[in-house]
Specification:
The protein is mainly α. It has a domain at 35-104. The protein is 75% helix and 0% strand. The protein has three helices and no strands. It has helices at residues 8-24, 35-62, 68-100. Helix 2 (35-62) packs antiparallel against helix 3. The chain is flat and about 60 Å long.
């Protein structure tokens, strides 16, 4: 197994945090958040993932970062986030077109 620099205690902490967060999640939307803010936050997180991936890749090329696994995982996260954004956009456009084509 490849050592990626995460200790088992850190994994346990991450697992516990994820379990706590999943228990706090409900299917009911929060009253204070609106759809526009949620989309903006999601796009900001995608932009942050892409920026982080770019910085890690540049640092690896310059010799400042030595962990290739970290760079590749960051690039995959960035790629998946972008693909998800495109899929959400396509679904929204299809829904809009379906609504516009409905007879009145």
């Amino acid at each position: 197994m490849t050592n990626i620099g995460i200790k088992s205690s850190q994994l346990s902490d991450i697992r516990a945090t994820l379990l706590d967060n999943s228990k706090n999640n409900t299917l009911e939307p929060k009253k204070t958040e609106n759809f526009g803010n949620q989309i903006k936050d999601a796009l900001d997180s995608v932009a942050h993932a892409q920026e982080n991936s770019k910085i890690l890749a540049q640092n690896y090329e310059l010799g400042k970062e030595h962990d290739l696994t970290k760079v590749m995982v960051s690039q995959n996260i960035s790629s998946l986030a972008f693909q998800m954004t495109l899929n959400v956009r396509n679904k929204m456009l299809n829904a809009y077109k379906d609504i516009m084509n409905m007879p009145v």
